[in-house]
Structure formats: C-alpha cells, structure tokens
Amino acid sequence: xxxxxxxxxxxxxxxxxxxxxxxxxxxxxxxxxxxxxxxxxxxxxxxxxxxxxxxxxxxxxxxxxxxxxxxxxxxxxxxxxxxxxxxxxxxxxxxxxxxxxxxxxxxxxxxxxxxxxxxxxxxxxxxxxxxxxxxxxxxxxxxxxxxxxxxxxxxxxxxxxxxxxxxxxxxxxxxxxxxxxxxxxxxxxxxxxxxxxxxxxxxxxxxxxxxxxxxxxxxxxxxxxxxxxxxxxxxxxxxxxxxxxxxxxxxxxxxxxxxxx
Length: 261
Fold this sequence. Notes:
Elements: H1 3-17, E1 19-21, H2 22-29, H3 33-45, E2 49-52, E3 55-58, H4 69-72, H5 77-91, E4 98-101, H6 105-114, E5 125-129, H7 132-138, E6 144-148, E7 152-153, E8 160-161, H8 163-169, E9 176-179, E10 183-185, E11 189-192, H9 195-207, E12 210-214, E13 226-229, E14 236-238, H10 245-253, E15 257-259
Parallel strand pairs: 4-5, 4-9, 5-6, 9-12, 12-14, 14-15
Antiparallel strand pairs: 1-3, 2-3, 7-8, 10-11, 11-13
C-alpha cells in the first residue's frame, strides 16, 4: 500500500473513531511502527490529527479545542435534550429555591425547557446564570426570578467570566448548580479549554449546595486543558449513557450519583 493510501485511511479512522494507536495501525497495514509514526507525523503537520503517547487523536480533541455555542448547539442534540429533560425532572413544578445555570449548550437546552415553567405552589423559581443567551430565554417568564451575573463576556461562549463574576458567586449559595463540561475523566476530573471559564465553573461548584454536571457521551473520558473540579467535588452526573471502565469505577469510588435516562 502506498503512503498516500495509508494517510487517507488513517484520516478516515480518526474521523470515525476520534483516536488511533500505533499498534493497531501497524497491524492493519502490515508495516512497522516506525512507518506508522512517520505517517502520523505527516498528518499532524497537515493538521489532521494530534500526536499523543502511543498514537494520535483528532485535531478537534486537543486540550484547547473549542467551538462556538452556535456550532455546538446542533451536535448531539437528541442526547442533550434527553439530559435536559432529566435535569428538569430534578426541579419539577414543586421545587422551591434557587438554581444556578452555567453557560453551555446542554444547560441552554434545560433553559429552553424552563421557558414555560410554572410552579404548582405559586412561588417563583430563582435562576442565576452567567450566560447571556440563557438570560435572554428566561427573562420574560413571570414565574422565574432571574439574576444575570456580570463580567467580561466571551464571544465564543457568550459567558460572563472574570474576577467580578467570581466575586458575585462568592456571595451566593444556590441550592443546585447545573454545569456543563468539555471533559469528564477518571484521572483529570472535570475540565474545559479556557482558564477564565474554568475559574467560574470552579466557583459555581464551590458555592452551590448540590452540583450537577450535564455531559453527553462525547464528553466522557475526555480531557481539556484546565481542570475546574475533581470528581469528588461533584454530587451528580447526568448523561445519556452509562460511563464505562475506569471512569465508572472512579465515579463510584467518589460517591458520585450517576443518572442515565
């Protein structure tokens, strides 16, 4: 097989699986590990992948990879809706108290479900958020008392971040915080690609009575650059699939409740 054919097939494998190993490619193509490493070096220079120990991952899986809210909104939409509905069930129509909604597409979907929220007891639901789009969705519901956290707004995620955002969070004690994440890992915990957002997420978990992370299957066993919490800091993980392997064992060891619809 010519090198160009291997490169094409490696690119296709990366696109389908998200990662490949030197060993599996060597066996698949019947070439030496050194030949595979040269192939991976070539594809990394072209931006197709990122070399990691023992193989490579898709360029989109690098620790700094981050796309806009608009781009992410339609990815795994069915899974995110399932997760959001499960999170809504945790609130119900009898909940009395305050919730904190982190910026993100899954938390944003939960906000969409809360647009018409109407309590059975007649008391408003207090919602605090650092997300401009979430605030825009919820501010017209008379059954919601909305608080929008201020700060520097990131264009990529429309999230308020920075020291002033954290200072406001430090004066709060919400009952439940619903957070998004870019990665949930047994070894690294919860992570996101941007330092200021990581600091805000850490403050949300630190100040809330109960922290709930909403993460679809694409976030499980993934790691981004900045850790904002260890698994032990988390109360509940809501996902569309059961975590497996070492992640499942780690969540169980740390006493994290896992809810799968």
